[in-house]
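Propose amino acids for all 339 sites.
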C-alpha cells in the first residue's frame, strides 16, 4: 500500500492555452484540486514554492485554506526553499496551518533549486555570514525551525507583560503537537539524503537528482533511498521514516489524454548540467494502462518509497488534473499493488 498524492507547481500564464491566467486562479484552483483529489480517494495535496515567478510562493495561507476545505488528505509542500525563510515566523505560520487542518501538514523543506533571480534570498534580507554558503544558511534556518517545532521554551519573558505568562521560558505559539515528526527534506543527492536522515527528517526525492553515476534514474534514486534508511538506522532514531518520490504519470484512457500526451510515450531519462554539475532527470510515464503497469513495476525507487507524488500540469485546469489523478488510482494503482 502506498500513499498517492499530487504535486503542483501552481503555474499561471495569461495565455489562451492556459486554464490558469492569474495568481488568484492558481491559488483558488489549488484549493479546488485538493478537494477534488480527496473526493477521488487520493491521499495528499502538495505544492511547490518558487519566488519571483508566476507560480505558487507563500504556502501557508494556501495550506490553511485547503485544510479548512478538506478533512482527510495530507497537505504539504515539496519544497520550501529555506534560504528565504525566517524560521521562527515560519514556525508560527506552520503551527497555525497545521492546527487548522487538524494535524495533516507534511512539510517538505530544502536548500532550493536555481531561482528566477540571482541570489533572490538576499532581496528577502538573508545574507550568508562570512564563510557560510547559501546551502549552509538553508540548513541553519532549518535547524532553528526544527528546534522551534519541539515546543520547548527558549525566550525570556518580560517582567511586566501585557498578558499573564506561564512559568518559565516562552515558546513559539501556536504549538502544533507532532508537526516536528512530519518534516521532510528534499534531497537532490545521496549525500544530502544521508544528512536528512541524521537530522531525523523524512525524505523527499523528486524527478531530478543533481548527480549522475550512469545508471538509470530510478536505480540511482533507489540507492539514495537505501542510503537514507541505512543512515536513519545508524543514527538511532525512533520509528520508521517516510520516503516520497515524484513522478509524471499520464495513463492514456481518453482521446484528450492521447492528444495531450502521445508525444511523451517514448520518454527516457535525460542527463544535463545544473548548478555547475551533472544532473539526471527522470522520464515521463505516458501510455495505455497495460504498458504503464509493466513499466512502473520495474521502477525500483517507486517500489522502495511509501509515498508517490504525481506531478500535475496544473495549467490544464482542475477537472483535467482530477481526471489524471483518478486515472492513476483506478487504472494503475490496484494492478501495481499500490492500493
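Proposal:
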Amino acid at each position: 500500500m502506498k500513499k498517492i498524492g499530487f504535486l503542483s507547481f501552481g503555474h499561471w500564464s495569461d495565455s489562451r492555452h492556459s486554464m490558469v491566467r492569474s495568481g488568484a486562479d492558481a491559488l483558488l484552483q489549488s484549493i479546488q484540486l485538493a478537494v477534488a483529489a480527496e473526493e477521488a480517494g487520493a491521499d495528499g495535496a502538495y505544492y511547490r514554492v518558487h519566488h519571483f515567478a508566476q507560480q505558487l510562493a507563500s504556502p501557508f495561507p494556501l495550506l490553511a485554506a485547503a485544510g479548512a476545505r478538506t478533512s482527510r488528505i495530507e497537505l504539504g509542500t515539496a519544497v520550501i526553499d529555506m534560504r528565504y525563510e525566517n524560521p521562527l515566523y515560519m514556525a508560527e505560520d506552520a503551527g497555525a496551518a497545521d492546527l487548522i487542518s487538524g494535524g495533516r501538514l507534511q512539510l517538505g523543506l530544502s536548500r532550493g533549486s536555481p531561482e528566477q533571480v540571482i541570489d533572490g534570498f538576499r532581496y528577502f534580507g538573508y545574507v550568508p555570514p562570512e564563510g557560510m554558503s547559501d546551502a549552509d544558511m538553508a540548513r541553519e534556518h532549518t535547524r532553528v525551525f526544527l528546534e522551534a517545532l519541539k515546543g520547548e521554551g527558549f525566550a525570556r519573558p518580560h517582567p511586566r507583560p501585557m498578558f499573564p505568562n506561564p512559568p518559565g521560558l516562552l515558546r513559539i505559539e501556536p504549538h502544533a503537537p507532532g508537526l516536528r515528526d512530519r518534516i521532510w527534506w528534499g534531497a537532490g543527492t545521496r549525500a544530502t539524503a544521508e544528512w536528512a536522515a541524521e537530522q531525523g527528517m523524512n525524505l523527499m526525492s523528486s524527478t531530478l537528482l543533481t548527480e549522475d553515476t550512469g545508471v538509470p534514474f530510478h536505480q540511482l534514486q533507489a540507492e539514495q533511498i537505501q542510503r537514507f534508511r541505512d543512515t536513519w538506522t545508524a543514527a538511532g532514531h525512533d520509528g520508521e521514516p517516510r520516503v516520497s518520490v515524484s513522478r509524471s504519470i499520464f495513463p492514456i484512457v481518453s482521446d484528450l489524454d492521447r492528444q495531450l500526451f502521445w508525444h511523451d510515450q517514448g520518454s527516457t531519462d535525460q542527463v544535463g548540467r545544473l548548478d555547475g554539475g551533472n544532473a539526471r532527470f527522470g522520464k515521463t510515464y505516458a501510455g495505455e494502462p497495460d504498458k504503464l503497469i509493466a513499466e512502473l513495476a520495474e521502477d525500483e525507487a517507486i517500489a522502495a518509497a511509501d509515498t508517490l507524488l504525481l506531478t500535475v500540469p496544473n495549467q490544464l485546469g482542475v477537472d483535467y488534473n482530477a481526471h489524471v489523478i483518478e486515472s492513476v488510482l483506478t487504472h494503475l494503482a490496484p494492478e501495481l499493488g499500490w492500493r
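The chain has a mean pLDDT of 96. The domain at 3-249+306-326 is CATH 3.20.20.30 (TIM Barrel).
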